[in-house]
Design goal:
Blueprint lengths: L15 E12 L2 E9 L9 E7 L6 E7 L10 E9 L2 E10 L6 E9 L6 E8 L9 E7 L4 E8 L5 E8 L5 E8 L6 E10 L3 E16 L2 E8 L2 E8 L4 E4 L4 E2 L7 E7 L5 E6 L5 H5 L8 E2 L6 E6 L2 E6 L8 E6 L3 E5 L4 E7 L7 E5 L4 E6 L4 E7 L6 E7 L5 E7 L2 E6 L4 E6 L8 E5 L7 E5 L1
Length: 450
């Protein structure tokens, strides 16, 4: 069957369920994006690491399975983790899960590769230290000034979230040091990360999660609430402390963004990708790609910078190589059809304090800026129930709007990347109409097919 939702420049599986990006790394000139994968079904009952590779982060090739749950420590799942290169070898750090007799047991494990194709599990592993439950996962490793550091997402014994810090001198033997951060992280913290942007600012990434019991006419059910956030600050290696210098903020204002991970490439760029899904149970059960045997995807890779005291996220410049069939629109309002669901829209505004409206894919998606209330609102049509969902951000002015659509996803970059809205959407391939209203004199809406 013809698949109208198949994406072109985003990573998605040919079959099965994809979730967290894992082990992002550039190794011997090739980009490696590992990911959580259930290749046998469309649920979360099985976890291994799948792998995509690329030379340019635009054209990706699936390498299939990379790390399988095949020993006692990880028999019930290869969960999220990270990669580093040292002495010409790739080290994969991941959480192994075991639930023998219904009892959860987690340990942090390592596999090593010389060629990026065969990953040999090492015998050393890290058991969960005292003071924590077995919700202890997602190791992120990096090189410090004098040794190696590891963060692990954690739940303390009092059932609150935390980030645990470990150190090592040889990448094999690790010492638990302390709780690095534990402020307002709900019931458990997932997918931690820590990296420097610029010369003075460190960014601590935390994904707080909690489980909520919901009662309605259909009975009781448990729902998971979680989001991806970051805290600017400074990590002090001497006393192993993280001291915030600003408030914790969400990475993404949209509907579908979670489990981000970053890496440093050979050009010195700090690049991040996330899982482009926070679907609720109804949305996931009714996701149209199920009819084609797969579900979920990753975001477009983004370059992170710290400028004038704030975080910027921008699409990797490699995506601009896909541009073709450019058009420009200068009238105060208008409408036109895109070539396909794969396109970019770019507007650099001369008068950023004026209102603006843009609607995509026959009003499946809407972007509306209201300067009087200083609010930018993004909406989408929910494919599960047909209702309109909205997300908002306070915005003193709208100076730039950049939108990337890829058949069934949209990523909207505001004001050069100060805010981003990520989402999945599903509509007929015939719904190609784009509408706009509010262009001022000398403003130009640029369209590119991708």
């Amino acid at each position: 069957m013809n698949n109208p939702y198949k994406m072109s420049y985003h990573i998605e599986p040919a079959k099965g369920l994809m979730n967290d990006p894992n082990g992002l790394i550039q190794f011997k000139g090739t980009y490696y994006f590992f990911h959580q994968w259930n290749r046998f079904g469309l649920d979360h009952s099985y976890k291994e690491w799948g792998l995509f590779t690329s030379k340019d982060m635009i054209h990706w090739e699936s390498q299939g399975s990379a790390v399988l749950p095949d020993r006692e420590e990880d028999y019930h799942g290869i969960h999220s983790g990270s990669s580093i290169e040292y002495d010409g070898r790739m080290y994969l750090f991941y959480t192994g899960s075991n639930k023998r007799n219904g009892i959860r047991k987690s340990c942090q494990c390592v596999a090593v590769s010389d060629n990026g194709q065969v990953f040999v599990k090492q015998k050393e592993s890290i058991d969960t230290p005292g003071g924590f439950t077995e919700h202890h996962r997602d190791p992120k490793v990096w090189r410090g000034q004098n040794n190696w550091w590891m963060l692990v997402g954690a739940q303390k014994s009092n059932l609150t979230g935390a980030v645990a810090l470990y150190s090592s001198s040889d990448l094999a033997h690790w010492k638990y040091e302390r709780v690095l951060y534990d402020q307002d992280l709900d019931q458990v913290c997932e997918c931690p990360d820590l990296f420097r942007l610029g010369s003075e600012t460190d960014i601590l990434v935390c994904c707080p999660q909690k489980r909520i019991l919901v009662r309605d006419a259909s009975g009781e059910r448990e729902e998971v609430s979680s989001y991806a956030s970051y805290i600017p600050g400074v990590f002090h290696e001497d006393d192993m402390s993280f001291r915030p210098t600003g408030q914790r903020k969400r990475f993404d204002c949209g509907f579908d963004f979670y489990s981000p991970q970053t890496f440093l490439d050979s050009r010195g760029r700090r690049i991040m990708a996330g899982w482009m899904s926070r679907m609720d149970e109804e949305q996931e059960n009714l996701c149209p790609t199920r009819d084609f045997g797969y579900i979920h995807c990753l975001t477009l890779p983004r370059v992170l910078t710290w400028e004038q005291g704030r975080l910027y996220q921008r699409p990797i410049e490699e995506v601009f190589s896909l541009r073709h069939n450019p058009r420009s629109y200068t009238g105060p309002e208008g409408n036109f059809d895109s070539d396909t669901g794969r396109f970019e829209l770019h507007l650099q505004r001369k008068e950023p304090e004026h209102p603006l409206e843009v609607f995509l894919r026959s009003r499946t998606i809407g972007i509306v800026y209201r300067p009087k209330s200083r609010v930018l609102e993004v909406s989408r049509r929910n494919w599960a129930n047909g209702e309109t969902q909205t997300r908002q951000v306070n915005l003193p002015e709208l100076s730039e709007l950049q939108i990337f659509s890829d058949n069934s996803s949209a990523e909207i970059f505001i004001n050069g990347g100060t805010d981003v809205f990520s989402m999945r959407y599903f509509t007929s391939k015939e719904n190609l109409r784009i509408e706009y209203r509010g262009l001022q004199q000398e403003e130009r809406l640029e369209y590119f097919a991708l």
